[in-house]
Amino acid sequence: MKIFSNGSSFSAGRFPEIVAERMNASLTNISMVGYSNRSVWRTTIEESPKNYDLAIIQLTSCSRHEYHDEKKWVEIGIALNHKRLTEKRRKIWKYWYENMYDEVYGDCEENFAIEGISDYFANQNTPCIIATTDKFTKSKKFDLNIFDLNFPMDETRHPTENGHKIIADKIYEIAISRM
Q1: What is the DSSP string of 39-52?
Q2: How confident is the model at residue 48 (pLDDT cuts 50, 70, 90)?
C-alpha cells in the first residue's frame, strides 16, 4: 500500500507517519511548514502523484498565500514576516491584506483548493481525505477539521506526539471507511 500526503506544519509532523505505520504502507509526504492552501494544491499537482492507494491532505488558514519572486515560491501570511519578503513587497502585501483580501475571497480560494485537489485524486481513482487546521472555516467540504478533535498541543500550538496519535487515529478511521 502507498500513501501520499501534503499539507502544512501539522502534516509535516508525525500523524501521516503514524497512519502509514498502522496501514503497513509506504509514505510519500511532501508537507512543508508554512504552506498555504495554494502551495499545497500547487505542489500536489507538480508532484503528480499517481498509483497511490490513499491521499491525506491537510489544508490551513485561507489567509495564507504564496507568490513567485523570480527565483522561488515565497509563503505569505497576514503577519508578513517571511525572511525573503522585501520592504517593497511587504508594503504591497500589507495593502492587499488591508484593502483587497476579505473573507469572501478567502472562502473562494479555499473552495478552489478543496475542489481542485479532490478532483485530481478522483481522476486517479485514489481515495482522498482532506482535513483542515483552520478552526474558523465555514466550509462543510472537509472530511475533518482537526481542531474538532481534542488533542494536546505544545508551546508552539502544534500537536504533541500524543496529539499526532489522536489525529492519526481519526484519519485512519476515515481511511478504513473508504476502502
Answers
A1: HHHHHHHHH---S-
A2: confident
What is d(CA 128, CA 52) in angstroms, rounded to the nearest whole number? 10
Residue 17 pLDDT greater than 90, yes or no: yes
CATH 1.20.210.10 fits 2-63+110-178, yes or no: no
CA dist list (Å): 1 to 5, 45, 73, 120: 13, 21, 32, 19
Phi-psi region of 35 (alpha: psi -120 to 50; beta: other; left: phi over 0): beta
Domain edges within the chain: 2-63+110-178, 65-100
Cell 508594503 belongs to 91
Give the position of cell 504533541: 160
